[in-house]
From TrEMBL:
Source taxon at top rank: Bacteria
UniProt domain RNA polymerase sigma factor 70 region 4 type: residue ranges: 112-162
Entry protein name: RNA polymerase sigma-70 factor (ECF subfamily)
Coiled-coil ranges per UniProt: none
Organism: Roseateles asaccharophilus
UniProt xrefs under InterPro entries: RNA_pol_sigma-70-like (IPR039425), RNA_pol_sigma-70_dom (IPR014284), RNA_pol_sigma70_r2 (IPR007627), RNA_pol_sigma70_r4_t2 (IPR013249), RNA_pol_sigma_r2 (IPR013325), RNA_pol_sigma_r3/r4-like (IPR013324), WH-like_DNA-bd_sf (IPR036388)
Statement: the UniProt record of this protein carries the keyword Transcription: yes
Keywords: Sigma factor, Transcription, Transcription regulation
Domain RNA polymerase sigma-70 region: 15-79
Gene3D superfamilies: 1.10.1740.10, Winged helix-like DNA-binding domain superfamily/Winged helix DNA-binding domain
Family of this protein: Belongs to the sigma-70 factor family. ECF subfamily.
Heme among keywords: no
Length: 174
């Protein structure tokens, strides 16, 4: 067996540290299981390829999320219009309630409702919210997306307020 190269070692390190985050990220970008699997494969390949150019100018986590952001954004653009209509922030207030499986726990139902709303956001807003849900701060999200940290914080604040209003509104009002 030959010794692995630094790119392979970095890839294994990235997947060991952030593999679960990447899987959640893919679930945030794609609802369909088959397309989600395809997206995961694309993401893993893109990550491995990109690590040949990793010089340590940012953290490995930031690098991994930059790649995930770029692959996810490309995926959304390629599949735009083929699935559920994406909404701007001001449109989300008027969404009808989606039917939920009553067999899940309350927490699972809440998560499903949040993800259903997040899936309907416009691509950039969706990406920001997914990164926020992975507990990245505004500065890290700004590094990944190329937006200013202030813009990121403002957009996330608006998205959270809209999601909260949707989640707390009586079902008949949605």
């Amino acid at each position: 067996m030959t010794a692995s190269n630094p790119q392979d070692q970095l890839y294994r390190q990235a997947i060991a540290a952030h593999g679960a985050e990447l899987a959640r990220c893919c679930a945030g970008y794609e609802r369909d299981a088959a397309l989600r699997q395809e997206l995961q494969q694309e993401l893993h390949l893109a990550l491995w390829q990109s690590l040949a150019g990793f010089r340590g100018d940012c953290s490995l986590r930031t690098w991994v999320y930059r790649v995930a952001h770029n692959v996810g954004a490309r995926h959304v653009q390629q599949h735009a219009g083929k699935s559920t209509k994406m909404l701007e922030l001001d449109e989300i207030e008027h969404l009808p309630d989606e039917r939920l499986d009553p067999g899940h726990t309350e927490r699972r139902l809440d998560l499903q409702r949040v993800l259903a709303l997040v899936h309907r956001l416009a691509p950039l807003d969706r990406e920001l919210m997914l990164l926020y849900l992975e507990e990245l701060d505004a500065a890290s999200i700004a590094d990944i997306t190329g937006l200013s940290a202030r813009n990121v914080a403002t957009k996330i604040h608006r998205i959270k307020a809209l999601l909260a209003s949707q989640l707390s509104a009586p079902r008949s009002a949605r």
